[in-house]
């Protein structure tokens, strides 16, 4: 059997490098404010395109994650950083960039009682103070099932609440350290129950050994908890120590899955080889908000 980890990537996964002036300016600004971006830490293939367009996903709560998911390139270990001034610096950077849609994510902070929920909430409020017309999307960890922590984030009023299931249920324990598929569904259900009009969002990676039937079942699971937006992209192995790519999924298959998702009632489906959770996030936000942020049917039990 050929070594799939060394197989040449297909043409549709080639990324155009644009390290021009906007990219350099943004990189310098992030360093000057001691900020992190998931674009860099997770080695996102879209970093050059997004940064050239002056968009970025801020990563708060430091750059060291308490979990060691087998798909993710973010540093793992015991974090030492908890910067209470970080929310204001994120807001300053968003203001300097003139953002109309701001995405904020974080590492998992299982060492904190609230998982960092209070910092998420203050970041939302800080951005709103400086940019009242800017929509704010947060991509949160599962807070270990602490729904009081989730409520802190929801009460701050993000425009979109994002939490990724990442993969199908059968593969979840192998792919995601400490995370649980059903707990992720419950988080999305609880978020919708707390604030029904705030759109919820989740994402899937393909190429880890899932079947099409399992992907469709995951769509159904997400719709059953009222999830409004779905992103589907190709998994890419960040280092030889991470899980290998089982299959490169053709763009035509991503197009079919987009149609399947829309038929199931998602307000927006972003599906393609290079799609990541925050890719074209502003466009996803417009679709969800145009739909009113209401699920096609009430969120049920996961």
Can you walk me through this structure?
- With 302 residues, the chain is of the alpha/beta class.
- The protein has a single domain, classed as TIM Barrel, CATH 3.20.20.70.
- It is 38% helix and 14% strand.
- The chain has eleven helices and ten strands.
- It has helices at residues 21-32, 38-41, 47-52, 86-97, 117-130, 147-155, 169-175, 181-194, 212-224, 251-263, 281-290, and strands at residues 36-37, 57-60, 64-65, 75-76, 101-106, 135-139, 160-162, 200-206, 229-234, 268-271.
- The strands form two sheets. An eight-stranded mixed sheet has the order 1-2-5-6-7-8-9-10, with helices on both faces.
- Strand 6, helix 6 (147-155) and strand 7 (160-162) form a beta-alpha-beta unit.
- Helix 4 (86-97) runs parallel beside helix 5.
- The chain is globular.
Give the N-terminus to C-terminus distance in angstroms.
Answer: 39 Å
- Mean pLDDT across the residues is 83
**Class by alpha and beta content:** alpha/beta
**What's the story with the biggest beta sheet?**
8 strands, mixed
| Beta content | 5-15%
Strand order of the biggest β-sheet: 1-2-5-6-7-8-9-10
Number of strands: 10
Structural shape: globular
Q: What is the number of helices?
A: 11
Named CATH architecture: Alpha-Beta Barrel
The CATH first-level class comes to Alpha Beta
> Which stretches of 5+ consecutive residues score pLDDT under 50?
1-5, 294-302
List the helices and strands and how they pair.
Layout: H1 21-32, E1 36-37, H2 38-41, H3 47-52, E2 57-60, E3 64-65, E4 75-76, H4 86-97, E5 101-106, H5 117-130, E6 135-139, H6 147-155, E7 160-162, H7 169-175, H8 181-194, E8 200-206, H9 212-224, E9 229-234, H10 251-263, E10 268-271, H11 281-290
Parallel strand pairs: 2-5, 3-4, 5-6, 6-7, 7-8, 8-9, 9-10
Antiparallel strand pairs: 1-2
Helix pairs in contact: 4-5, 5-6, 6-8
């Amino acid at each position: 059997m050929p070594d799939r980890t060394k197989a040449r990537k297909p043409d549709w996964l080639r990324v155009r490098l644009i390290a021009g002036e906007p990219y350099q300016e943004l990189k310098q600004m992030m360093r000057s404010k001691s900020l992190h971006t998931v674009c860099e830490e997770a080695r996102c293939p879209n970093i050059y395109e997004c940064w050239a367009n002056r968009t970025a996903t801020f990563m708060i709560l430091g750059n060291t994650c308490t979990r060691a998911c087998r798909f993710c390139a973010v540093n793992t270990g015991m974090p030492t950083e908890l910067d209470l001034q970080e929310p204001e610096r994120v807001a300053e950077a968003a203001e300097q960039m003139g953002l109309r849609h701001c995405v904020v994510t974080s590492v998992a902070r299982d060492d904190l009682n609230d998982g960092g929920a209070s910092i998420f909430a203050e970041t939302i409020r800080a951005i709103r103070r400086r940019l009242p017309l800017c929509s704010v999307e947060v991509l949160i960890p599962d807070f270990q099932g602490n729904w009081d922590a989730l409520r802190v984030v929801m009460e701050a009023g993000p425009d979109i609440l994002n939490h990724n299931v990442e993969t199908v249920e059968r593969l979840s324990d192998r792919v995601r350290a400490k995370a649980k598929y059903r707990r992720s569904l419950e988080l999305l259900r609880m978020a919708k129950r707390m604030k029904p009009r705030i759109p919820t969002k989740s994402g899937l990676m393909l190429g880890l050994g899932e079947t099409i039937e399992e992907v469709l079942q995951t769509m159904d699971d997400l719709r059953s908890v009222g999830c409004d937006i779905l992103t589907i992209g190709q998994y890419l192995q960040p280092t030889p120590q991470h899980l290998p790519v089982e299959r490169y999924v053709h763009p035509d298959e991503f197009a079919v899955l987009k149609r399947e998702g829309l038929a199931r009632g998602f307000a927006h489906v972003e599906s393609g080889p290079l799609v990541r959770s925050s890719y074209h996030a502003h466009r996803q936000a417009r679709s969800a908000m145009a739909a009113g942020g209401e699920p096609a049917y009430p969120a049920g039990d996961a």
